[in-house]
Amino acid sequence: DLVRSRGLGDVYKRQDEGCTKVAAAFEQKARPKIKECYREGKKLNPVLEGGIRIVINVDAFGKLGAVKTQDVTLPDAVAKCMVKAVQATPFDDATQCKRKGITLPIQFPTK
C-alpha cells in the first residue's frame, strides 16, 4: 500500500492521505535548494549526472529525526549539499507523518 506522488523525486511512504499532502509540500519547498546543489556540482563537472535517495524519518512527536542517504551516485559534495538542503527545509505539519519514513528519490538530469 505505497502511495506515489510525482515531483522532483517521488515521495514514497505508507498510505496516509494527510502525510502524503504534507510530504509533497515539503518536497516542493526543498526542490529549489536541491536543484541549486546540482547546479553547483555542474560548475565542476558539466556532464554531471546521478541520483540519490534521501530518507527522512519523522519521530513519534512529529519532529524530523535522522536523514539518511541511499543509492548515491552523485559526488559526495553534491550529496551532502542536498542532505543539508533537506534538513534546512521547514517541514510544516510533520505531525501528520508521525513514525513514518519519507523517501525522496532524486535523479539528475531530470527526464
Please tell me about this protein's structure:
The chain is of the alpha+beta class. The chain is built from two helices and five strands; from the N terminus they run ββαββαβ. The chain has helices at residues 17-44, 76-88, and strands spanning 2-5, 11-14, 50-58, 64-70, 100-108. Strands 4-3-5 form a three-stranded antiparallel β-sheet, with helices on one face. The protein has a two-stranded antiparallel ribbon with strand order 1-2. α1 (17-44) packs antiparallel against α2. The longest helix is centred in the first third of the chain and has 28 residues, at 17-44.
| Low-confidence segments | 1-15
Radius of gyration: 14 Å
Report the end-to-end length measured between terminal Cα atoms. Answer: 26 Å
Give, in spatial order, the strands making up the sheet with the most strands. Answer: 4-3-5
**How would you sum up the global shape?**
elongated
DSSP strand tally: 5
* Percent range for β-strand residues: 25-35%
Given the helix and strand composition, which structural class is it? alpha+beta
Oligomer state equals single chain
Strand count, sense and closure of the main sheet?
3 strands, antiparallel
- Determine the fraction of residues in helical runs and give it as a percent range: 25-40%
